[in-house]
Amino acid sequence: MGRIPQNIVDQIYNAMDIVDIIGDYVQLKKKGANFWALSPFANEKTPSFAVNPVKGIFKDFSSGKGGTAIAFLMEMEGYTYVEALRHIARKYGIEVEEEDESDEQREARDKRESLFIVNEFAASYFHDNLLQSEEGRRIGLSYFKERGLLEATIKTFRLGYASDAWDAFAGEALRRQYQEPYLLELGLVSRSEKNDKLYDRFRGRVMFPITNPTGKVVGFGGRILGNRKDVGKYINSSESEIYHKSQVLYGLEQAKKAIRDEDLCILTEGYLDVILLHQNGIQHVVASSGTALTPEQIRLIRRYTRNVLMIYDGDAAGIKAALRGIDLLLEAEMQAKVLILPDQHDPDSYVRAVGAQGFRDYAEREAMDFVQFKLKVLPEGQDRQDPKVQTELIKGLAETVALIPDRVQRQMYIRHVAQQVDITEGLMTHAVDEARRTQQRQAYRDRRRQETQQARQQPEVPAEEGVVEAKPAQGLAAFDRLSLTHQEREILRVLINYHDREIDDAEYGAPVEDQEGNRIAYEQIPLVEFFLDELENLPFENPLYERVKQELFAAYEAGGIQINHFLHHEEAPIRRLVSDLLLPDYEISPNWRKHGAYVLDLDANLKRTVEAPVLHYKSRKINALIDQCQEEIKAAQAAGNAAELDKLLESSMYLIKMRREIHKKLGTEGAIRGEDAHL
């Protein structure tokens, strides 16, 4: 697979509709200039995922992700850039021909494809071993048939068998020249510490290939046969570049169409539950692959439906998993119900006992919402009339109801719970409100803790080749440096959004006079020219921002700035930054200005909007230079260096004069105040 020619790429970009593409994954609603939806990358209660059809970009304010439709597909599907282009080309019927790509691009793509190829070989190997080898048929196939699986079902799910031999798979894989690093990364083999040889990680196990929604094999689950106590009953592939256990659902490839058709997803615990229900005509079923339900798995389900029926074992572990799953589903604005099967039954045994229709009838009759489920699983022996027991029960129900984002739905559940536990609706409302306040406080503390940890762990961005990295002046506090970086970001925001505009400028534009020679205006100059004059020799503190600034200036001098070039830049950090800056970090409220808050309103007063960031930024830089100069003056005084002291005093006076001129332009005296103070 080579590089897609630029003319085909241009054709794809011209054809793609970002609302259409993203609309395949989330439900978008138009509000103002943007379309909004709940984030597909994070659980949230209020939509913060914005799509701007005019600019052709999205911004997810929950996760910070943003970019074009290409970037969205790369995030959602794990595509490479070329794979995302191909996806869009298929959607719009564009034929793709390829040409050569760079060595680095080819190497990254080849590795990912190689991992899929190795897994595909492993799936075929285990499947053939099950159906064709004597050991596979005698042990593996017999087990599956005992569990009631038909051969067609075995082939649909590509079930397999791993021989009990020490290195049967490893030997065959090496014989066929599959590379050791890929076999090791995928967790198909391990290396012996004794003799440094590879041996099979899956041995004497029936094998369940795990695929992504598009059908590519990302990993395996293996179940041991027999009564061996020295090994785990189930083991899974190692986490790898293409497999993350918490982000996959077993059987989704086979179930996704049925889930859409039924508008319901049945969630079970085991591989065989999925397979046998599917075989018996209940095909809208997936499994969490032995892991507790995760937010990432819920986001996968949400692509196809908002309704989930959980079927877990009735033991303590199953009840705990169901309770946690209910909370996560309700928080993600999903409808959640729980089904407890009759004693001694799991989904595969029960569907074999009563048939598909009997299973459906039982589910429709016995499925419980979370209120009924929590009441049912109240530990035996506890008196529900006991005030202490009842208080704990009400608090637990209130904590769950409080997670529901939709206010109307939350109020309906408050009424429902109040009726079920025989208390007033007002008392239940109070309990839910208290639970919501507690959750919001905890969420705020968690978010602050996470932000603090991220700030501490944030690595220093290395300067790109050819970029002058400015060193912060001595004595600057961390907050001052952060404020300076923020101002650099705002300057880039103005430059990126309004690079094609012109401004009246008394300092740089030539005067325009009327017929009598009276000056009536100043000639307009390109906005970029203003930034060039002010900032070309003033390097940004942040190396990434400096890199983008210099590339913007270079593009302007080469003939013009094309924002699409930056949105599809070969370097992901630049793509992300530019897409972030094209969308505002907030929705502007009409009340903001009433309260004197600074609003970066680029259209209202472009000249002021252009000047303010630059003047604030230069003010900060000058303050830093003044601080540095004062330190050097102290050092010169201590050393008795009169000549150096004179030079430094002259420099200090000049800097103070510059600062005073800047503050005059800002309309401030010494301290920055007014509507620009929050830049």
Topology overview:
Blueprint: H1 6-15, H2 18-22, E1 29-31, E2 34-37, E3 49-52, E4 57-60, E5 66-67, H3 69-77, H4 81-91, H5 103-132, H6 134-146, H7 151-156, E6 160-162, H8 168-175, H9 180-185, E7 189-191, E8 198-200, E9 205-211, E10 217-224, E11 234-236, H10 252-262, E12 265-268, H11 271-279, E13 285-287, H12 295-302, E14 307-311, H13 316-331, E15 335-339, H14 347-366, H15 370-376, H16 387-401, H17 407-421, H18 425-457, H19 478-497, E16 502-504, E17 511-513, E18 519-522, E19 524-526, H20 527-535, H21 543-557, H22 563-567, H23 572-582, H24 590-594, H25 606-639, H26 642-666
Parallel strand pairs: 12-13, 12-14, 14-15
Antiparallel strand pairs: 1-2, 2-3, 3-4, 4-5, 6-9, 7-8, 9-10, 10-11, 16-19, 17-18
Report on this structure.
This protein folds into four domains: 6-91, DNA Primase, Chain A, CATH 3.90.580; 106-241, Alpha-Beta Complex (DNA primase DNAg catalytic core, N-terminal domain); 252-434, Dna Topoisomerase Vi A Subunit, Chain: A, domain 2; 478-676, no CATH class. Helices cover 52% and strands 11% of the residues. The chain starts with 5 loop residues before the first helix and ends in a 13-residue tail after the last helix. The protein has 26 helices and 19 strands. The radius of gyration is 32 Å and the shape is globular. Helix 17 packs across helix 18. The protein is of the alpha+beta class and 679 residues long. The model is unreliable at 458-482, 506-514, 586-603 and 669-679 (pLDDT under 50). It has a five-stranded antiparallel β-sheet, sandwiched between helices. A four-stranded antiparallel β-sheet has the order 6-9-10-11, sandwiched between helices.
